[in-house]
Specification:
Distance between the termini: 39 Å
Shape: globular
Strand order of the largest sheet: 1-2-3-4-5-8-9-10
Helix content: 40-55%
Strand content: 15-25%
Bound molecules: 3-hydroxy-3-methylglutaryl-coenzyme A, magnesium ion
Number of strands: 10
Radius of gyration: 17 Å
Number of helices: 12
Oligomer: single chain
Order of helices and strands: EHHEHEHEHHEEEHEHEHEHHH
Structural class: alpha/beta
Largest sheet: 8 strands, parallel, barrel
């Protein structure tokens, strides 16, 4: 039985933009984010507190936070380590995402640490943030495949998820970082996670590298998942995952769900107007079908 309503978590301002080579002016990002917030999206990854040397595009995180925090949307900021937590504590932001890869090979390239060493830093941070009343989301990268190691065992992904839950995380965002999962792998892993953690938010984060994003979302819906990370215009990708491309596009997902009679509360015209603002600053063409058919520019 499919749900009547699902939640879309917009990751365009963070995952979407972090993979853009040219620095996008902060004012343009703020306009993009504001339009996305006005579209009815309830939750959004706003930016990340990572090293400006590793990801220069996110170096304006403090300015983005001070201009874009609003009461209507859950605005989430990503942090990779203790330093990121210290930076969060100086802002009014109250929702945080930590991110760790199941695969050591990937995690070393992304965060310069093994998975175990990252967890040693991140789990105490989660406990501290929960103690202060923060909403904590845990993003699990390479949950299906690693660009360096290949297939990841479901048991390894579930074990990492369990550690996050034990530390008090509110949400698991489980990611197909390089868009290699098939719909049956999506159904299998998400069914197991749904059963194992029945009282937690479980979110599916699909990159659309091989155009299996919508099919994987359908499979995850059948497994009982009702939360999806998507990116306006299908932008995105992790700069440290070889071959990674964008997330499944918000407008294509919202369109599919609306055709299935599943409510998201998202106004597609407003999403198109947000994309119109960011589009002249992008280094690659927009591939989402909905945008191609509906853009006025
Ligand atoms: P490192 O070089 O090992 O760090 O990088 P370090 O601790 O040795 O510090 C080096 C410098 O970075 C120092 O500055 C630190 O202060 C600074 P310096 O003294 O040289 O001027 N630094 C920081 N600055 C700002 N914020 C911080 C921070 N930490 C240290 N939080 C580090 C380690 C984790 C910093 C680096 O590897 C990094 O920034 N990585 C982030 C990579 C990233 O952003 N990846 C993309 C997001 S994850 C993703 O996209 C996947 C996801 O979408 C799910 C999926 O699809 O799989 C979530
Ligand atoms: Mg991602």
């Amino acid at each position: 039985l499919l749900p009547k309503k699902v939640t879309i978590i917009e990751v365009g301002p963070r995952d979407g933009l972090q993979n853009e080579k040219n620095f996008i002016p902060t004012a343009v990002k703020i306009d993009f984010i504001t339009r996305l917030q006005e579209s009815g999206l309830q939750e959004m990854e706003l930016t990340s507190f990572v090293s400006p040397k590793w990801v220069p595009q996110m170096s304006d995180a403090t300015d983005i936070i001070s201009s874009c925090l609003n009461m209507k949307t859950r605005n989430i900021v990503l942090i990779p380590n203790r330093k990121g937590m210290e930076r969060i504590l100086l802002t009014p932001c109250r929702a945080v995402a930590v991110f760790v890869g199941v695969s050591d090979e990937f995690n070393k390239r992304n965060i310069n640490k093994t998975t175990a060493d990252s967890m040693k830093e991140v789990l105490p941070a989660i406990i501290a943030l929960k103690g202060k009343g923060y909403f904590v989301r845990a993003c699990i990268s390479t949950a299906f495949y690693c660009p360096y190691k290949g297939k990841i065992a479901e048991a390894d992904t579930i074990k990492l998820c369990q550690q996050f839950i034990n530390a008090g995380a509110d949400e698991l965002s489980v990611a197909d970082t390089i868009g290699m999962a098939s719909p049956n792998e999506s159904f299998s892993l998400f069914s197991k996670l749904r059963e194992r953690f029945p009282h937690h938010m479980i979110t599916a984060h699909f990159h659309d590298t091989r155009k299996m994003g919508l099919a994987n979302i359908y499979a995850a819906l059948e497994a009982g998942i009702i939360r999806f990370d998507t990116s306006a215009a299908g932008l995105g990708g992790c700069p440290f995952a070889k071959g990674a491309t964008g997330n499944v596009a918000t407008e294509d997902v919202v369109y599919m769900l609306s055709r299935m009679g599943i409510e998201t509360g998202v106004d597609l015209e407003k999403i198109v107007s947000a994309i119109d603002v960011i589009r002249p600053h992008l280094s690659r063409p927009i591939e989402s079908a909905f945008y191609r058919l509906h853009s006025s520019t």
